[in-house]
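Quick illustration, no need to memorize.
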Amino acid sequence: MSNTKVLSEGNYTNLVKLRTSTFPVKAILARGRRNLNKSCRLCGYVTETQAHVVPACPQLKDARIKRHNQVCDLLARAAERAGWNYMQEPRVRGPDGRVLKPDLVFHKDTKMVVVDPTIRYEQEDETLSEGCRDKADKYNVIRTELCAITGAADFVCLGLCLGARGSWTQKNDQFFKALGLRASLRSTFVNKAILSTLDLFKMHNDI
């Protein structure tokens, strides 16, 4: 879990609700109340659960994109301080003709690290590790093209997958090590994921 010392009392209380799946969404509020409409108050498509609000409600898509971009910016600044140059969303045509846009391509000397950060709602133990693996596999197909652009010879494509409820996977440590980032930054990214998730719920309840 995150360093909860940086969370306000209210945010800490809501974090506990998130991690125990007791946040007051309609699926929870309707327990024992058969006549309560459980449809999402924003989209109205499906039952309003935590697992719907955080990663799936279409009415919060723009907010999720903003959250993603904030994580990318946070990561880019951290890597710059560690001496890396970077490209953001370069358009690269792969051998099959498809154009791919990795979020961040870090390069320094002959080294290159490609990453597509993501925040996923933790429903299973393997959610985050699978997220890292999916992102890494996606951009290995443009390895040759990216090496030609950056002049790098040492290529690695890694995932950075943060848990929306504050979980962390050891695969993220591989990414931190590849960039030479301080381990203390881990709590910065975890807390960013938590607070942005709580912001999604605030938007969901206020709209």
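The chain has a mean pLDDT of 91.
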